[in-house]
Write a structure and sequence with these properties.
Rossmann fold
Length: 292
């Protein structure tokens, strides 16, 4: 539990999401939802997502966010509460970057879940922005095309309002990545990208804006974006990024910028389960080998 407690001391808030299930989710008797529950929830999401023209079927993993009674949904509501009610002395974060240290830590799926959790709030609206121009994922999770989006805005000066798409959730919209460009680092590190953060914040004052950004160790421009947003959520997958990398990332971003750290794929033992479950919701996992 050392890495978890050490990070909590440095950032003030850490959240655990437990070890992954197989791509088929869970079977009867396993931890997590069983097959019958999963089929019912998937059907509900499919019906919901098709209610909005242009929206396809959501990725099955997002069922966990729609299911209000699920442990994974509760975990993201805890994160939402930390954003809505920040620690004393910390300003509210309206523009939030979600990133990881290395690839395959789950930052895109955390971005999607956080967006859903915010949009489920009574007064909150959320705009998701896919800044991972190298390996975009976000639009696909909501059954939307990524063909036009952020890259088009940065390259061609297209009006941003024409690129924002509605999802099937009334208060959740998305700015997809666009077709992956040949110069993603230059585009994301540009002054125009920096200006976009401020423009989205001022143009849509009723919305939280979530920026799904490339991993820090493979895309140096994410560190530039981190300084433009109000706060950063760092996603860490157990067995991928070690303590040294985590501490270095927190130091590079700045502790005052870190809203919290999401420990993904956390494997607990009986002692840590009893201790941590009192304060943090965790779930038996939801990723398959497609995740990032």
């Amino acid at each position: 539990m050392g890495k978890f407690s050490s990070t909590q001391e440095k950032t003030g808030f850490s959240l655990q999401i437990g070890q992954e299930l197989q791509s088929s989710y869970a079977t009867d008797g396993d931890q997590g939802i069983n097959n019958q529950e999963h089929r019912a929830q998937t059907d509900a999401v499919a019906d919901h997502s098709l209610s909005q023209e242009g929206s396809g079927k959501w990725d099955d993993r997002l069922v966990q966010s729609v299911n209000f009674s699920g442990e994974v949904a509760e975990a993201f509501r805890i994160l939402r509460s930390k954003i809505l009610i920040p620690h004393e002395g910390r300003q509210n974060s309206r523009t939030i970057m979600v990133t990881s240290i290395l690839p395959k830590e789950g930052k895109s799926f955390v971005s999607a879940n956080l967006g859903v959790a915010l949009a489920q709030g009574v007064d909150q609206h959320c705009l998701l922005v896919d800044c991972d121009l190298r390996l975009p994922t976000l639009a696909g999770l909501f059954g939307l095309s990524r063909n036009r989006g952020l890259a088009d805005y940065l390259k061609n000066n297209i009006e941003i309002a024409t690129l924002i798409r509605k999802t099937s959730m009334e208060k959740l919209s998305i700015l997809a990545s666009g077709v992956p460009p040949v110069n993603p680092a230059e585009l994301l590190g540009s002054g125009r990208m920096h200006e976009l953060v401020g423009e989205l914040s001022s143009r849509y004052p009723d919305r939280f804006v979530i920026f799904d950004s490339p991993p820090l160790r493979v895309a140096s421009e994410s560190m530039v974006l981190a300084q433009a947003v109000d706060g950063v959520v760092l996603v860490v997958r157990q067995g991928v990024s070690g303590r040294v990398l985590i501490e270095q990332a927190i130091e590079d971003i700045g502790k005052q910028k870190i809203i919290g750290v999401v420990f993904n794929g956390y494997k607990s033992n009986i002692v840590t389960s009893r201790l941590i479950n009192k304060s943090y919701a965790y779930y038996g996992g939801y990723y398959n080998k497609k995740e990032r």
